[in-house]
Specification:
The complex is a heterotrimer of chains A (about 300), B (about 325) and C (about 525). Helix content of chain A is about 65%, strand content about 0%. With about 300 residues, chain A is mainly α. In chain C, strand 4 and strand 5 form a beta hairpin. In chain C, helix 15 runs antiparallel to helix 16. The longest helix of chain C is centred in the N-terminal third of the chain and has 16 residues. The chains are: A mainly alpha (about 300), B mainly alpha (about 325), C alpha+beta (about 525). Chains in contact: A-B, A-C, B-C. The interface between A and B is large, with 66 and 84 residues.
Chain lengths: ~300, ~325, ~525
């Protein structure tokens, strides 16, 4: 999916993706809600975190978030300490060397992580929630479902970078524009996934039973259907985190990314690519952090997925 | 299948109409005047206004929209504001380049995506699985710009094995043309294939837990036959859907790869059009891309139905 | 639907091997083919006869901009179209004859008689006459035509006083502006002009004709054997579009191109130290920061502080790889009335600047800066922002795409902005045509009666008074600190070492003697 550059990971990564009209999804025995008796969804996720993969993911994520949050404490000077000595190699004073304006690359990498996390940890959940609601809206009324599906189809078909560029130009460059671009880019994937789950769940006996008992449609949607479709959505969200970073990187290439001098991992990779032969640490820093982020989210989605398919 | 397609026509038409309106309005919402770009950096407001009139931009919006849509039906896609040439010509010049790249990258995507996924899903030893999954994660985190550049440095500068700049059409000269396509297609497909591979792998692991697999094992079916005949076939569904979605990306969005390998494709045209507010070009590309995505969606559903008899074309 | 998906590894392996063998055996290497094409037959002299020069341009050709200087056209426009004179190396006083062979100024410097060259024909076969020159200048004046020198042409009367003679009359002195104005206005063919914008017919008088043109793509030029002068050494010039700066470097490294125009200086200098490549001077330009005298910047002390706070030397080093000059003056140093004594009049002194800001009570004032979203301006902004933050101001960036940027600046709504301007003449020429400096329709927002008077003084000054007039204007500009040139620099192109005589005049590459060494 992604509305930006060809990027790894589609919204359906790591999880079954149903077609719009039907599912190729793994089908639990008909009639039985996947909500486990006793404990509920949270205990299932908690147990996912107790597996080796889940623990590794959690530790890694917590570490990365902690470093990002504590960046102003670890590096109180900020990310814009320019100096004459540009493009210097790694040394005692600058572990990863300096960039083209003499700033410490390690410091910029950490602050870049901070910027990226501030974007993806807000935009992706928002996209997830809105996309899910759009996808599930089909349960409230069929025409509404059809309309939202068509809207999502249009967003999905829109050429990615163009959509991003136009959103940023309309709103004006900066954090908010990138936030909106990421949210909009994620909607079709989450929406499709949610709708697929809806289609397979809404025929289940427990749903029909609730209807017969007179429970309102909207209540059914939130209290019964939603918990059963949320698993693949979470997995997809974790993949979209990395994709979101590449969306920002793509916009940075055309000069519409996060406003300078604010660093971001994607923008640093773009600039550092020019110096990959003379100063490889410029890309190694942000590249390694990106790799760790991807690893953390991959492990997390694997752990969650295994918990989801366990019965 | 024909009935399925026919039944979908109204919704496809609706999507295209809605898209045409959005494609028309959204570029005009972006602040800026394309006439200012055409007029050059030192132009006076008078020049800009004169050029604006020449380009027909001061007519009422509804008129401009209707003229454009009318033109779409007669094959006149409009005139580029920047280049003063028919949009159809601009697109036609670049279509071959983009399609070639998309097709080869698509093939690589299928081969590597499914191949890697199978490897990961059927890996018996722990080490093999860690290795494959590690490669996969690495590919997932690979920034497209950097991957392309590394390919250039490795195969074009350090070891001059393949050309890294420009293009020659495969139709003109197949053996040379494909050499120009190899690196860009690989750079485009490899990172994307990681996502597909994860899908296949996850599904394979999940399907393995199914009852019918236990039945097959207890019947004494060989592991390889189980993998191929039972597990694999049931795992490809989501991969097909994902590939279908990605194909739209390949066509409309290989901008970065086109830029660094100096290929003159639709992606470049789209970005330069968006940046200089060339409304006519951007409009057509948006509608075209959505149309292709919708067609891709239909194809995906057909393939899915072919793979999985439980899926009925709705 | 009971087909079995057969993806046995063996079959996949067979397919892979088949593919590999096709590629390996009996298949010519594309790299080899490219190298073969680039290597042309060698000659005994250092300049080989014939050959193809492939030029990479970062922007596609803009056919409706041939009467203006633009990055997009630098590679081809002077190969196809020729002006009356060519200005090379900033020598405004002594231009080279092109389509005009002689020019005689009247004593009062208010008129000049130009003698046109005999035997010049357009690529369509038609002979050049004075009527064509008059037509071109009239065309340049039309509102919808893009021309750099409209403001000057508006004050001229251009008449054909003979078949091959043109007389130009002006109300202000001609000699300071004539060479630049003529040099930027190539003579066009009235018969085919209507089809020029779409590229259907690109007809000029130059040493190369257009063989093929793909809009937004390649342009192929071939030698004009009916040229009025000596036939050019090169057989063919191909101008190809490569927008990405690093891709341009890849192209030249792989041998696909021999000249790269429009790449960033930082990319150019990653390989220019290699003896296989060289930097080529293109056209001279300035990178000014133009301040909007409103809000906190209405106070001239604040503007002066900004001027003193900016580390121009570091901008030159880190953004322009040391290739520019940081005199702080807007003018071309090759002009005769250049006020050399005013170079570096404002020192870099961030401490004093900080104090000035405090005294003016402007600490914490917001300074929004508008830029075009290009790499060079963004890089400049990063250093400027760093400098301004250091003295207590709060800069913020407004990065715009070109449609928005051009429109706002033209409407005088750019605020404080960074820009890039070509410097194509002496001070008199600059103050009449340059969008940051001119009186009519300026992009800057600063205005004052003194400025108007001083500018008018420069425009009206005769040869002996011009140095004083320019000096006075420059002093005022330094005092008021509303236009702050960061760096002035000759643009750089990247070329292979075997490219010889790549001469750039105003407007672009003049390939009459350009060739590839053997």
């Amino acid at each position: 999916m992604t509305k930006a550059l060809p990027v790894p990971g589609s919204p359906s990564d790591g999880a079954p993706v149903p077609a719009v009209e039907d599912t190729a999804q793994q089908v639990p025995p008909a009639g039985r809600s996947r909500r486990p008796r006793g404990g509920g969804a949270w205990s299932r996720y908690a147990s996912a975190l107790r597996t080796p993969k889940g623990m590794a993911a959690a530790v890694l994520l917590v570490l990365l978030v902690a470093v990002a949050v504590l960046a102003p404490v670890i590096f109180p000077g900020g990310y814009d300490q320019q100096a004459r000595g540009a493009l210097q190699g790694p040394s005692g004073g600058h572990w990863l060397g300096t960039d083209e304006f003499g700033r410490d690359i390690l410091v910029r990498t950490v602050y870049g992580l901070r910027t990226d996390l501030s974007l993806i940890l807000t935009a992706v959940p928002v996209s997830l929630v809105i996309g899910t609601l759009l996808g599930l809206s089909g349960y409230l009324s069929k025409p509404l479902g059809a309309v939202t599906q068509r809207i999502l189809d249009i967003i999905l078909g829109f050429p990615g970078l163009i959509l991003g560029i136009m959103i940023v130009l309309v709103i004006g460059t900066g954090w908010l524009a990138l936030f909106m671009a990421i949210v909009i880019a994620g909607l079709p994937g989450f929406g499709r996934m949610a709708r697929g789950g809806l289609l397979s769940e809404q025929q289940r006996e427990y749903v029909l039973a609730a209807r017969v008992l007179g429970v309102k449609r909207s209540t059914i949607m939130v209290r019964h259907i939603l918990p059963n479709v949320v698993d693949p959505l979470l997995v997809q969200a974790s993949v979209f985190m990395v994709v979101a970073i590449f969306i920002e990187a793509g916009l940075s290439i055309v000069g519409l990314g996060i406003n300078p001098p604010n660093p971001s991992l994607g923008a640093m990779l773009n600039v550092g690519a020019r110096y990959v032969q003379s100063l490889p640490s410029y890309v190694i820093g942000p590249g390694a952090v990106l790799l760790l982020l991807a690893l953390a989210f991959t492990l997390l989605s694997d752990a969650l997925n295994q918990a989801a398919t366990r019965r | 299948m024909i009935r399925f397609l026919v039944r979908r026509i109204p919704s496809v038409a609706l999507v295209l109409v809605a898209t045409s309106v959005i494609a028309f309005l959204l570029p005009r919402l972006v602040p800026g005047d394309p006439a200012a770009v055409v007029a050059g950096p030192d132009a006076t407001p008078e020049t800009i206004a004169a050029i604006r009139t020449e380009l027909g931009l001061d007519r009422p919006l509804v008129t401009q929209y209707l003229d454009w849509v009318r033109g779409l039906f007669t094959g006149d896609l409009g005139q580029s504001l920047q280049y003063n040439r028919p949009v159809s010509e601009l697109i036609g010049d670049r279509l071959a380049s983009t399609v070639e790249l998309a097709v080869l990258a698509g093939i690589f995507l299928v081969v590597f995506g499914i191949g890697l996924g199978i490897l990961a899903g059927s890996a018996r030893s722990r080490w093999a699985r860690v290795l494959v999954e590690g490669t996969n994660t690495g590919l997932l985190a690979a920034p497209p710009f950097l991957v392309g550049l590394l390919f250039i440095l490795l195969f074009g500068v350090a070891f001059r094995v393949l050309p890294i700049s420009g293009e020659i059409s495969v139709l003109e000269n197949p053996s040379i043309g494909i050499q120009y396509l190899l690196l860009p297609a690989l750079a485009l497909a490899l990172p994307m294939s990681a996502g597909v591979a994860r899908l296949v792998q996850t599904r394979m692991l999940a399907v393995r837990q199914e009852d019918f697999i236990d039945l097959a094992v207890s019947k004494g079916v060989s592991p390889r036959r189980i993998d191929v005949r039972h597990v694999l076939r049931n795992s490809l569904g989501p991969a097909v859907v994902a590939i279908g979605i990605r194909f739209g990306d390949l066509l409309a969005g290989a901008v970065v790869i086109e830029a660094i390998f100096a290929r003159n494709g639709l992606g470049q045209l789209a970005v330069s059009g968006a940046q200089s507010s060339d409304y006519t070009v951007v409009q057509v590309l948006i509608v075209g891309a959505v149309f292709i995505a919708v067609v891709g969606q239909l194809l995906t559903e057909i393939v899915l139905a072919a793979l999985d008899p439980r899926v009925r074309l709705g | 639907m009971n087909t079995t998906m057969n993806v046995s590894p063996r079959k996949a392996g067979i397919v892979a091997m088949a593919l590999a063998s096709v590629l390996v055996t009996g298949c010519q290497s594309a790299v080899q083919q490219a190298e073969d094409q680039a290597a042309a037959p060698s000659a005994a002299a250092s300049c080989q006869a014939g050959g193809t020069l492939t030029i990479a341009s970062s922007q596609p050709a803009l056919l409706n901009n041939v009467l203006a200087q633009s990055q997009a056209n630098l590679g081809w426009v002077r190969a196809v179209f020729e002006p009356l004179v060519n200005v090379v190396n900033g020598d405004y006083a002594d231009p080279q004859p092109a389509l005009a062979t002689e020019w005689a100024y009247a004593d009062d410097d208010r008129s000049v008689v130009l003698t046109l060259r005999d035997g010049v024909t357009f690529h369509s076969g038609r002979a050049l006459t004075a009527a064509d020159v008059v037509w071109t200048f009239q065309k340049a004046l039309e509102p919808a035509t893009t021309s750099d020198v409209k403001a000057i042409l508006a004050g001229w009367t251009v008449e054909a006083t003979g078949d091959m003679e043109v007389t130009i009359t002006s109300e202000s002195p001609l000699s300071p502006v004539l060479a630049s104005t003529l040099s930027l206005t190539p003579i066009l063919d009235s018969e085919t002009y209507d089809e020029l914008a779409s590229g259907a017919q690109i007809v000029g008088t130059g040493p190369f004709t257009v063989q093929s043109y793909t809009p937004g793509g390649d342009m192929v030029l071939v030698r004009n054997d009916a040229y009025w002068g000596e036939a050019a050494p090169l057989d063919e010039i191909v101008v190809t579009l490569i927008t990405d700066s690093t891709a341009q470097v890849s192209a030249i490294r792989s041998g696909r191109t021999q000249l790269s125009l429009g790449l960033t200086i930082q990319d150019a200098t990653t390989v220019s130290t290699d003896p296989q490549y060289q930097l080529v001077d293109t056209v001279f330009g300035a990178y000014p920061l133009v301040l909007d005298p409103s809000g906190p910047l209405a106070d001239v002390a604040v503007r002066k502080a900004i001027d003193m706070a900016i580390d121009r030397a570091r901008i030159n080093e880190q953004v322009f790889s040391g290739q520019g000059t940081t005199t702080g003056l807007y003018w071309s140093p090759t002009a005769e009335d250049y006020p050399a004594d005013l170079e570096n009049a404002v020192p870099y002194d961030p401490d004093a600047a900080r104090q000035m800001i405090e005294e003016a009570g402007a600490t914490g004032a917001a300074v929004p800066i508008t830029i075009l979203a290009t790499p060079v301006l963004q890089a400049e902004y990063e250093i400027i922002a760093n400098n301004l933050t250091a003295i207590g101001l709060v800069p913020s960036v407004n990065a715009l795409a070109s449609a928005d940027y051009q429109q706002r600046l033209a409407a005088g709504q750019g605020g404080t902005y960074l820009s890039l301007r070509g410097i194509n003449g002496g001070a008199s020429f600059a103050v009449q045509t340059n969008a940051d400096l001119r009186l009519a329709n300026p992009h800057r927002t600063f205005a004052s009666p003194e400025y108007t008077d001083l500018v008018t003084g420069v425009v009206q000054a005769g040869a002996d008074e011009s140095a004083d007039a320019v000096h006075a204007l420059t002093e005022y500009m330094i005092d008021q600190s509303f236009v702050l040139p960061m760096v002035t620099s000759t643009g750089k192109g990247l070329a292979t070492a075997d490219l010889v005589n790549a001469t750039f005049a105003l407007g672009g590459l003049v390939p009459t003697e350009t060739c590839l060494a053997q």
